[in-house]
Design a protein that fits this description.
This protein is an alpha+beta fold. It is 35% helix and 20% strand. The chain has a domain of 100 residues: Gcn5-related N-acetyltransferase (GNAT) (Aminopeptidase, 3-Layer(aba) Sandwich).
Length: 553
């Protein structure tokens, strides 16, 4: 360190060391961040504290304050002050002239308004970062990640930010201002539409008519809209608005999971999809995630939080919506968020089947397959890869083999109590078809009938019952009626417990089990689970089918 009057200079190594506690860093920048977040000191306050013993230096001639200069290695303060009066800030006109001048120069030299947007500049910055830190962005370094992980804005800072924004923009955040919304609207319009007719067609699919024109977007003027369902008219700054009069509970926003599902369906189904389409059924408005009109198919993705009881979705919510949409002639698929996250391939295959997009798979006939009794492990290996409900601990498992490859599985057990059945006698001839699934490599024609026939010959049942999840199955054109089952009725909706991003089977948390775990026996199962931070989410129930041994005369 060299000192001449007020002027102090240091070496590069010294600039990387915090002189308050002696901690060393990879760079001067990281040291400054550390000081700011640990000791709440700005660079100027830190320099005055450690190099000037907390006393700000003065002009050696006039004793007036000297201005601070944020030099990496110093000097930070001069011996003499040239002008101690604060510089008059630039006016808006001056700032605009400076901006235009910089852009003009950059355009002449590099062909762009900002030199940092050129490919060579981006590449140079990336190479410098890779050379110095081993990553293309300094924020990716472990030390910076660790540093930012402890950064928490104080309540005072947050409040000050809100006050500044309110004073400047009239809102506590800039993103809430009409100015920002209109700029974002223009950007998104240019990005996704660029064509007024295309934009109007998108609105028409959402039952909305735009009463403005394209000039309103380019001139940053709010647009006027009309709802085709309730005829309500309003002015909005959003590009894709919603009718607040008939849709108080709807917003045109999507989770990451819903967005990824929409993108995938739109990619595989080339004839086009409609998102956020609304239907009026007996005066009640229903909004759907994905609608494919030519297939009369609706696909819904249920977020585990937003579709839980705490978000206002009671036991009948999904069932009522299913009934309403089916009354319009649609087939409805309802997917839970964790199914899309953790069983993506199975969900995709089921959707492809509904869209008839897996018809190109190689076909094999059931007559070319050999049926055998198999163990649970072999059965579950296929079920885990192909069945949305996964494995099962069934008593009887049958597999169909094509050239020594397992291509289909059907499993049976005594009627399950957890499905609402009474405990059956061991000698009873009543059974339940628990799982049926086929490989994703082939279309195995007629294999369900062959597997069922094999079981009937093997066990001679009087009656077989089975359940189809209404979120995935409909009464029309399903496998049960094709193999001789008859529809008996609908079961009541079922619930799961939810924590974070996964559903938990409710029979894992019966009150008897919770009491054994040491919880208060005076409280209900629901009360205990609520204390454990679990929520509940409901399905649509099941379709119940029954097969009976034909009566011979």
């Amino acid at each position: 360190m060299n000192k001449i009057g007020n002027e102090i200079t240091i070496t590069d190594e010294e600039s990387k060391t915090c002189l308050i506690d002696g901690k060393k860093f990879e760079s001067n920048r990281k040291m400054i961040w550390y000081v700011r977040k640990t000791y709440k000191l700005s660079l100027e306050e830190y320099i005055v504290k450690v190099y000037y013993n907390g006393v700000r230096p003065l002009c050696l001639k006039t004793s007036n304050p000297v201005s601070f200069k944020a030099h990496k290695l110093g000097p930070w303060f001069s011996n003499y002050s040239k002008n101690n009066f604060p510089r008059k800030p630039h006016t808006k006109e001056t700032k605009e002239k400076i901006k235009i001048g910089c852009e003009t120069t950059s355009l002449e030299k590099f062909g762009v308004k900002n030199v940092f947007s050129t490919d060579w500049c981006k590449e140079k910055s990336k190479n410098t970062m890779l050379l110095k830190y081993g990553v293309d962005n300094i924020m990716k370094t472990k030390s910076m990640k660790d540093l930012f992980s402890i950064i928490v804005k104080s309540d005072e800072t947050i409040q000050k930010t809100k006050e500044t924004n309110f004073k400047k923009y009239g809102e506590v955040t800039y993103t809430s201002t009409d100015e920002n919304k209109l700029k974002s609207r223009k950007y998104n319009y240019d990005l996704y539409y660029k064509n007024w007719e295309k934009y109007k067609n998108q609105l028409n699919q959402l039952s909305i008519t735009c009463l403005g024109d394209e000039k309103d977007i380019t001139s940053f003027t709010p647009l006027k809209f009309k709802c085709n369902i309730c005829n309500f008219e309003w002015v909005d700054t959003l590009l894709i608005p919603y009718c607040s009069d008939c849709e108080k509970n709807f917003r045109n926003c999507r989770s990451k999971e819903e967005s990824s599902l929409c993108k995938w369906v739109d990619c595989v189904y080339k004839k086009g999809i409609v998102t956020n389409k609304r239907f009026n059924v007996d005066g009640k408005i229903y909004e759907t995630d994905i609608c494919i009109e030519d297939k009369k198919l609706i696909i819904e993705l249920h977020g585990l939080f937003w579709h839980s009881e705490s978000a206002g979705k009671d036991r009948n919510y999904h069932t009522n919506k299913l009934k309403a949409l089916e009354s319009l002639g649609y087939t409805v698929i309802q997917i839970f968020e964790d199914e899309w996250l953790f069983k993506t391939d199975i969900v995709k295959n089921k959707i492809l089947h509904k869209l008839s997009l897996n018809d190109s798979l190689p076909k094999i006939g059931a007559r070319n397959c050999v049926v055998e009794l198999i163990d649970n492990i072999t059965s579950n290996n296929l079920l885990e890869m192909t069945h949305i409900q996964g494995k099962s601990n069934s008593s009887y498992c049958y597999g169909a083999y094509f050239k020594d490859e397992l291509v289909a599985v059907m499993t049976f057990s005594k009627p399950r109590v957890n499905m609402g059945n009474k405990k059956s006698n061991i000698d009873s001839k009543e059974y339940e078809l628990v799982r049926f699934s086929t490989t994703n490599k082939y279309r195995v024609i007629g294999i369900a009938s062959k597997l069922l026939s094999f079981f009937v010959k093997d066990k001679s049942p009087d009656q077989i019952i089975s359940y189809a999840d209404k979120r995935w199955s409909s009464k029309n054109n399903n496998v049960y009626e094709k193999i001789g089952f008859k529809f008996i009725g609908d079961t009541q909706p079922n619930y799961w417990y939810v924590k974070k991003y996964k559903r938990e089977y409710r029979f894992n948390f019966t009150k008897q089990k919770l009491i054994k775990m040491g919880y208060d026996p005076l409280k209900t199962e629901k009360e205990i689970m609520k204390e454990l931070k679990y929520d509940r989410i409901w399905d649509c129930g099941h379709l119940k089918y029954e097969w009976n041994l034909p009566i011979t005369v």
